[in-house]
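In this supplementary section we document a worked example of the pipeline. Step one takes a protein sequence of length 323 as its only input; no multiple sequence alignment statistics are reported here. Step two produces a three-dimensional model, which step three serialises into structure tokens for compact storage. The input and output of this example are shown verbatim.
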Amino acid sequence: MEKNPSPRPKKEAAAGRRTPALGADGRYKVLVEQLPVGVYRTTTEGAFVEANAELIRMLGFKRLSDLFRRNVKDFYVRPEDRQTHLEKMSAKATVFHEFELRRADGRKFWVRDYSRRVRDPDGSSHYDGILVDVTERKAAERKVRLTVEKLRLSNEKLESLSLSDHLTGLYNRRGFYSFGLQQMKIAKRLKAANYLVFLDIDNLKEVNDAHGHSVGDLLLQGVAAILRTTLRESDVIGRIGGDEFAVLAMRSKGQGEKSLMARIEEGVAAFRVKGRARLRLSVSMGLVAVDPQKYQQLDDVLAQADFLMYRQKRIKERQENPL
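The serialised model returned by step three reads:
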């Protein structure tokens, strides 16, 4: 009698069985739960219908039930962001929007929301979306903006320093040329004459030798103050050398060259250095009218005014020391 064949080992039989496959819905849910971004479904009123584990964590909760007790609008830092988001959703089915949210513990973070409006069979709607935490990117962008702004302010400060005289606060030679050329172009467009005044402090070296450079600096600052108070804000004023100043003033109605020179001379005559009653400020000046219809180099105009100033200085010296 033939023996019955030996039964297949249990291990081998088990290997032949297959684990039941997940359905489409099951695979979808597993995929959504494993995504490293927040996934949600809400009503149009903001009530949560679905949320994955990452969204629960992102909003600062441990359980889905805790999140479901809240409304979407509770998490917006700025209520107007919610309104803007809804307006975009009403105009377009799918939108991308960045805004700031507040976690359950009060901490703020930035998100990018990829959301779409979905029509339900019954005619109602709901919102499906993905939230991506972009806080680090926003922080990096803010750092870049702050760095750029700091660099801009630093460049402006350096530019200001490179165009200004540190002692008087007026333009230095470079600044005077830069803004003086602009002034001449404006005068040409307006067909208005400019006056260029070249001014030099008399005997500044002797003042420095007798009273010290600190007193000499007071005279330089005094001249700067006189020019600032005498002239208009639109006029270009500069200290272009050690004891030399230049002014480019646009002529206005009722202001002639004699009036301009007289006002400067009045300021000089009234100036006093505190504690130095016997010390007087004296300057020599040369003035040249700049015709806007004639092409003239600023260097040439300065040279003409410098020559006139030097001639006045020589006249003063001969009057003070006659033969």
